[in-house]
Amino acid sequence: MTSATEAFFDGLARRRHEPLLEKVSGCLRVDLDHGKSVDHWYVNINKGDVVVGHDGGEPDTVFYAPARVFEKLASGEMNAMSALLRGEAATTGDLELAVLLQRLLPGPPTSTGPNNLARSAAANPNNVRPGAPRISAGFSTSGTLTVDPSAARAGERR
User: Where is the SCP2 domain (predicted)?
Assistant: First the structure.
C-alpha cells in the first residue's frame, strides 16, 4: 500500500506543471526524519514546471518534519503552517517556497470545498510579493521561536 507521502509526491511529479506555481522558480527540499534515517525529496520548480525526485540541486528552502508528521500533512489531516507554529516541523531559507508547499498539500478530508483550499482566489500566487524577505525560523528545544533577521538580507531570489 502506498503511503500518503508517496502518493503526494508521485501525484505532484505526474502533473509536471502546476498552475499555482507559474510565477515561481526555486528548489524545495523536504527532509523526512524516520529516526535513524532521513529521506530527501526535491521539488524543483521552474515557472510552474515541476520535477520531483530524491536528488537535486542546492535547495532554496528546506522543510523538515518527522515522517509521521508529513504523512498527516500529505493526507490533509494536519496543516503545514500549523505544524510549523507548533514546532512539529521547521523550515529554513526562502519562506515563500514553504508557503507554496502548503498550497500544494491537500485540504482536510472532511472539507466540503476544493480539495486544496489554496486554489481559492485568496491564495492566488499573484498575492505573493516577488522578492519577499528570506528568513530562517523555527523553535528551539526551550520552546521559544527564533528568527534570524540577517537571513532577510540574503541573496536575491532566482
Answer: 16-105
Angstrom CA distances, 10 to 73, 106, 135, 143, stand at: 15, 14, 29, 34
Read off the C-alpha cell for 132. Answer: 519577499
Parse the chain into domains and list their residue ranges: 4-153
Q: Residue 106: what residue type?
A: P
**Rounded Cα gap, residues 35 and 119, in angstroms:** 34
Domain 4-153 has CATH 3.30.1050.10: yes
Place of cell 521539488: 43
Q: Determine the angle formed by the axes of helices 67-75 and 4-15, rounding to 10 degrees.
A: 60
pTM of the model: 0.66
Per-residue pLDDT 10s for the chain (158 aa) are: 358 899 888 888 888 888 877 888 999 999 999 999 999 999 998 998 989 999 888 999 999 999 999 999 998 899 888 898 899 999 999 888 888 888 888 877 665 544 443 433 334 444 444 554 444 444 444 444 444 444 444 443 44
CB-based burial of residue 108 (10 Å sphere; 0-12 exposed, 13-18 middle, 19+ buried)?
A: middle
Q: Which residues contact 138 (CB under 8 A, 6 or more apart)?
A: 84, 87, 90, 91, 92, 145, 146
